[in-house]
Amino acid sequence: MRLILLIVSLAFISCSKKCELELQGKRLDFYLLEQYKTKEQSFSILPETAVLSEVKAISYEEIKTYNKKSHCFEIDNKAIKRLNHEPFIHSKAFAVVIDGEIIYTGYFWAAFSSAICDWTNIDYLDYGNNLLCVKLGYPTDFYGSLVDDQRNNEKILDLLDCDGKLKD
Q: What is the spatial distance between Cα 164 and Cα 168, in angstroms, rounded to a whole number?
C-alpha cells in the first residue's frame, strides 16, 4: 500500500513540476492572420505561409475553459461582444498560437453563410452561451486528409490542463 501511495505521489509531483517549469508563463492566443496562401481551389491554409497580425482576436485571459470532447472554447463576455460587433470578421483567417508558435489555423465563419469552407472554422456569433466551437469544415465536418485536426494538440491540452482551463 505504501508503495502505491509513493508512486501516485511521485507522479503527481512530476506533473506539477512540468506545469511549473515547462509551461509556466506560456499562453494560448488567437491571432488574426495578416497574410497566408491556400491550397488550390480550397480554403486550406498552408501553414508555412501564415503571417500573424499584431491583432489578437482572443487573448489567453479571455479564455475561461476548453472542452476537449466538444472542441469548444468558453470565452468571457468582453471577447464574445467584440467578435459579434466586429463588422468584417466573417471569413477572416486566424491562428491558434502558443508563445509565437502556430498550432493550427482556421477561419471565423458565420452560420448564416451559404459558402462551403473545407478548413477549420469557428462560428463566432453568440447564441447565448459564450462558446466558440471549432469545427472541421462548414456546413459539415470534412474528415480525413482534407483537414489536419489539431484541435486537441498535446501542447494545447497540456497548457490548458496546467492552468485549470481544460474540461473533459
A: 12
CB 140 within 8 A of CB 123: no
In a domain, 4, yes or no: no
Quick one: which of 62, 43, 50, 47 has its CA closest to 153? 47
Which domain range does residue 131 map to? 27-167
Torsion, Cα 119 125 126 127, to 10 degrees, reads -80
38 found inside a domain:
yes
Does residue 72 form part of some domain? Answer: yes
> Across the 168 residues of the chain, what is the mean pLDDT of every consecutive 10-residue run?
46 53 78 96 94 95 97 94 85 95 95 89 85 91 77 96 94
Q: Length of the chain in residues, anyone?
A: 168
In the chain, the number of structural domains is 1
Give the predicted TM-score (pTM) of the model.
Answer: 0.85
Sign, CA dihedral 125-89-55-160, equals positive
Residue found by looking up cell 472542452 in the block: 67
